[in-house]
Amino acid sequence: xxxxxxxxxxxxxxxxxxxxxxxxxxxxxxxxxxxxxxxxxxxxxxxxxxxxxxxxxxxxxxxxxxxxxxxxxxxxxxxxxxxxxxxxxxxxxxxxxxxxxxxxxxxxxxxxxxxxxxxxxxxxxxxxxxxxxxxxxxxxxxxxxxxxxxxxxxxxxxxxxxxxxxxxxxxxxxxxxxxxxxxxxxxxxxxxxxxxxxxxxxxxxxxxxxxxxxxxxxxxxxxxxxxxxxxxxxxxxxxxxxxxxxxxxxxx
Amino acid sequence: xxxxxxxxxxxxxxxxxxxxxxxxxxxxxxxxxxxxxxxxxxxxxxxxxxxxxxxxxxxxxxxxxxxxxxxxxxxxxxxxxxxxxxxxxxxxxxxxxxxxxxxxxxxxxxxxxxxxxxxxxxxxxxxxxxxxxxxxxxxxxxxxxxxxxxxxxxxxxxxxxxxxxxxxxxxxxxxxxxxxxxxxxxxxxxxxxxxxxxxxxxxxxxxxxxxxxxxxxxxxxxxxxxxxxxxxxxxxxxxxxxxxxxxxxxxxxxxxxxxxxxxxxxxxxxxxxxxxxxxxxxxxxxxxxxxxxxxxxxxxxxxxxxxxxxxxxxxxxxxxxxxxxxxxxxxxxxxxxxxxxxxxxxxxxxxxxxxxxxxxxxxxxxxxxxxxxxxxxxxxxxxxxxxxxxxxxxxxxxxxxxxxxxxxxxxxxxxxxxxxxxxxxxxxxxxxxxxxxxxxxxxxxxxxxxxxxxxxxxxxxxxxxxxxxxxxxxxxxxxxxxxxxxxxxxxxxxxxxxxxxxxxxxxxxxxxxxxxxxxxxxxxxxxxxxxxxxxxxxxxxxxxxxxxxxxxxxxxxxxxxxxxxxxxxxxxxxx
Amino acid sequence: xxxxxxxxxxxxxxxxxxxxxxxxxxxxxxxxxxxxxxxxxxxxxxxxxxxxxxxxxxxxxxxxxxxxxxxxxxxxxxxxxxxxxxxxxxxxxxxxxxxxxxxxxxxxxxxxxxxxxxxxxxxxxxxxxxxxxxxxxxxxxxxxxxxxxxxxxxxxxxxxxxxxxxxxxxx
Lengths: 252, 575, 171
Ligand SMILES: Nc1ncnc2c1ncn2[C@@H]1O[C@H](COP(=O)(O)OP(=O)(O)OP(=O)(O)O)[C@@H](O)[C@H]1O
Ligand SMILES: Nc1ncnc2c1ncn2[C@@H]1O[C@H](COP(=O)(O)OP(=O)(O)OP(=O)(O)O)[C@@H](O)[C@H]1O
Ligand SMILES: [Mg+2]
Ligand SMILES: [Mg+2]
Hints:
The complex is a heterotrimer.
Chain A: H1 12-15, H2 18-34, H3 38-54, H4 59-68, H5 70-84, E1 90-94, E2 97-100, H6 101-127, H7 130-139, H8 144-173, H9 183-214, H10 233-251
Helix pairs in contact in A: 2-6, 2-10, 3-6, 4-6, 5-6, 7-8, 8-9
Chain B: E1 2-10, E2 22-31, E3 36-41, H1 47-54, E4 65-72, E5 75-76, H2 77-80, H3 82-85, E6 89-92, H4 96-99, H5 105-115, H6 120-133, H7 149-161, E7 167-171, H8 179-196, E8 199-203, H9 207-213, E9 216-221, E10 224-230, H10 231-235, H11 238-243, H12 250-258, H13 267-281, E11 306-316, E12 322-332, E13 336-340, H14 347-354, E14 362-367, E15 370-371, H15 377-380, E16 384-387, H16 400-410, H17 415-428, H18 444-456, E17 462-466, H19 474-489, E18 493-497, H20 501-507, E19 510-515, E20 518-523, H21 525-529, H22 532-535, H23 544-551, H24 562-569
Parallel strand pairs in B: 3-8, 3-9, 6-7, 7-8, 13-18, 13-19, 16-17, 17-18
Antiparallel strand pairs in B: 1-2, 1-4, 4-5, 9-10, 11-12, 11-14, 14-15, 19-20
Helix pairs in contact in B: 5-6, 5-7, 13-23, 16-17, 16-18
Chain C: H1 5-25, E1 27-30, E2 33-36, H2 38-49, H3 51-68, H4 75-92, H5 98-122, H6 130-162, H7 167-170
Antiparallel strand pairs in C: 1-2
Bound molecules: adenosine-5'-triphosphate (ATP) (2 copies) and magnesium ion (MG) (2 copies).
One adenosine-5'-triphosphate is lined by residues 148-149, 317, 320-321, 323, 341, 343-349 of chain B.
């Protein structure tokens, strides 16, 4: 479903504490930003793919990231080499512009890095349920109210998406025929959708505020957690390994 | 336990220079610990507002002016605030889906418990206990918005029960539930009262349920409690209730008309009294079921044109259950068909197939002989007008006038014709005063009328109305009934989806029960409703009058309305 | 701002969700390209509710949309660009006049397109696409802003009329 990328499977990443995964994310980002050269980056990316697959994320899901990025990547591969201007052996030349082999490699490096960073963040979402992620953030010091705000936003995204569908259904049920209109007509049909959606949002704000208050939100005093997060041995192990790799890489 | 003295409440104005609506006006109310009371009143009387005020949520969230004193569970509501109050007072909202805001069913229940700072083991224990009680154990990991309407209601209740409140406020706990769901929730509330002595106040329109559940009934009218007393006494004052747009139980109507002693409220109570009446009076007993003319003099006008024809329609929602399972149905032009059946049976799904919002995966749907395949929704809308189950999903324009003009404009009518239709609709539905008001801020009853008027301006030959009377009081329901009768008389084909079998009995020419995505029963209401046996598997029961007729020797078994019963008893004063 | 703290958090949460949903699902193919309505939603939030909600809803909402669409690496950049856009628009339009809104749109457009351009151009290691991406994208960003504003400014007026209780959230 839209916005929920979590793959509920008993993979090794799914089993880690969300805080551990956030640390892994940071060290992964450091590596991706400091490793240079297309080949080493490709190797990192391959490792990331294998790690995800080992954590039972299906290939189709992993591949989805690159398919979403395909236009951006295409722009980078096709245009970047022309303006990069890295000296090297000239491959193609059109007027004053030229593509060198080094420029091409630089373009590939940029593309791989972008892909890698996207996949890295997405892999956190592939392997962590949204509420758990927010719990991790709260455990790391995000104030509870803001954690709740974030969870609520995530919770209501699919619900608003359904709302949009329903408004559009209502329009069609009263004779709206999208296929007959040109672009302008189609744009003008969106205005009532916006109006109805926004009004729905404001009404939801009131009812939801009441619903939350009725269950004690805003009551001063400590809250407990039904399933408190606990760092396990595997979390510490993963942390130590990640730290070792990153530090070794930075030092060497 | 609940103590309110001279409460007045006024909502903030809805338009910049307008006047706020005075909803409560010097209301006083007092409930003892452990009492089980029902509050009734017309649509828009202020039942929900009162519940929210008692829970401290209004005016804190909505703004407005509140006067008077309120103590609930020994706390001064206006002083301590809603959040603190939530430790003692549980409120189950009118619309359950508004109340569910977590990602899984078990998180939903745990949320309030975490706020009570209970230790994790205790939270776990209560979550297990309450989910088991409401029968949602299997659904623990599912998202609340994927549950059926009835399951959502149970979950909303469960999340409140787990907090073990001393006072429980229930806002229309029965609306939109099928009879099976109603029974399950009623049983749960009984258990709760026995185990914890919880004080309960339910705002409810369904008199049949109130008659069985409540010990005491209050009626809210003009911002005040105008009637307050033991259930039997209050519900028997049929004319008084009617005058306040509250629908009395059918047996109370019968008892009043026949002057039965002892204020019976259920068919079991009424049966021996009616039996005795018949025997004492030595009334002529009609043994043969008598052909009774339905109120609509339209029987026999069956057209040979088939308006709607579904043939083995199959449909499955993505990652959902099979919602239609080979549904076949034929409706003639000008017929008035009621569709009923259990929650999740596929009624709404079928309705959406008629105007192409959904398409059958296999099988076919024909309108006036032409298949819907390949025709767009916007085009089908010329033939089928669809009144949505939830009016809020249907209303999107900035003013009521725009809302009513939207459909006919899409039909490509001339501006003059559009305007003429809008004016006629405004008048017909009594909406002139609100013509330029934003529909979104109107009360529920008015929004419902707008949603119907907006289809009316399109004048489609086929109407599909999805539970149009849910949540409406007796007066508004009567208004809708009159409107549907007029449409029927004018030759429109009507498909009415409803859980209200009393309505079906009084109105429809044909009753189709849809269950598990198929037509389970199909026939004239008289035939379908007079047999309790075949209805039972679908969690349905005949209306109280029909049940009464079945229990009294000498009455035909297939009486459907109070009038028919009175006529059969031979005492109908109207005759 | 709202006195009721819970209501404030809920308002922010739902505006975030609104921006995210609109960004991710409201796309109209225009010619060869795609027009998305993120800017309409950000301006709407800013005009109706002010700078802080404009910032949070614009920033977090678009960042979430990026993430869910697979463009996760762009999320921080979107947060900055659209957050600033909402902040400036909400602040400049706080008097509620059309003049203020137009000013807000101008400032918002410059901030949004500018931050994307700078970020992509100079982002560490080209993680946001580098100069090529930056130069291809900025004209589209400006067009989207203009299109978004053309819808958002009248819409904010319509909404005030269609739902008068709105004023409760603004002050
Ligand atoms: N937030 C609000 N602002 C202004 N008016 C409101 C608000 N909420 C409700 N009202 C109005 O107050 C009146 C009482 O509404 P309320 O929902 O309490 O009635 P009710 O008895 O529960 O009706 P129903 O049977 O439809 O549930 C209605 O006219 C309604 O339009
Ligand atoms: N959008 C949806 N996605 C997935 N499943 C759905 C969706 N809408 C309905 N369903 C499922 O399809 C089945 C039929 O639902 P439908 O809404 O047609 O029932 P109904 O007869 O109208 O019930 P009710 O009396 O509660 O309105 C149910 O099992 C329901 O859970
Ligand atoms: Mg109500
Ligand atoms: Mg339905």
